[in-house]
């Protein structure tokens, strides 16, 4: 069966490279992560990891990490009941609230404070 439009054909080698790094990012997204750490987890060089990420996702490992952090922050904000934007940003590994707000706005088209204001309060 051919791949769907926009979907990359399956590549077991690239998947084998990317999967451990992605799993590590998902488990440790709040920590200070470096490409060197991800390379160590995947057992490959920086160039190999970069090429595999770009092939599989169209973005670098660093961009993937930021994307995941923002997704996690968005989920926390949607649930409400949080102390504040800076706490959410920090909990997701983005330690500068102003940059977090800008990244969030760039990705979702609204500031995190707007999403938090719309979240349910219990």
Structural summary, described in words:
By secondary structure, the protein is mainly α. The chain has two domains: 54 residues, Arc Repressor Mutant, subunit A, CATH 1.10.10; 49 residues, Arc Repressor Mutant, subunit A (Orthogonal Bundle), CATH 1.10.10. It contains seven helices and no strands. Helix 1 packs across helix 3 and helix 4 packs across helix 5. The longest helix has 19 residues.
Task: Give descriptors for this structure.
single chain; 122 residues; mainly alpha; Arc Repressor Mutant, subunit A; 2 domains; 7 helices; 0% strand; disordered N terminus
CATH level-3 fold name of the largest domain: Arc Repressor Mutant, subunit A
Helical percent range? 55-70%
Query: What ranges have pLDDT less than 50 throughout 5 or more consecutive residues?
Result: 1-7
Order of helices and strands: HHHHHHH
User: Any idea what the CATH architecture of the largest domain is?
Assistant: Orthogonal Bundle
Distance between the termini: 49 Å
Q: Biggest sheet: strands, sense, closure?
A: none
Q: Give me the Rg, rounded.
A: 16 Å
Broad CATH class of the largest domain: Mainly Alpha
Q: Which class do the helix and strand fractions yield?
A: mainly alpha
Shape descriptor reads: elongated
Count of helical segments? 7
The mean pLDDT is 89
Strand content: under 5%
């Amino acid at each position: 069966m051919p791949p769907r439009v926009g979907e990359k054909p399956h590549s077991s080698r690239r998947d084998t490279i990317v999967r451990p790094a992605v799993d590590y990012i998902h488990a440790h997204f709040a920590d200070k992560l470096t490409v060197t750490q991800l390379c160590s987890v995947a057992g490959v060089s920086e160039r190999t990891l970069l090429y595999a990420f770009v092939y599989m996702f169209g973005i670098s490992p660093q961009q993937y990490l930021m994307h995941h952090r923002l997704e996690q922050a968005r989920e926390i904000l949607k649930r409400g009941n949080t102390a504040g934007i800076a706490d959410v940003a920090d909990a997701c590994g983005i330690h500068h609230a102003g940059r977090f707000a800008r990244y969030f706005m760039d990705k979702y088209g609204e500031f995190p404070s707007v999403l938090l204001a719309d979240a349910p309060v219990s």
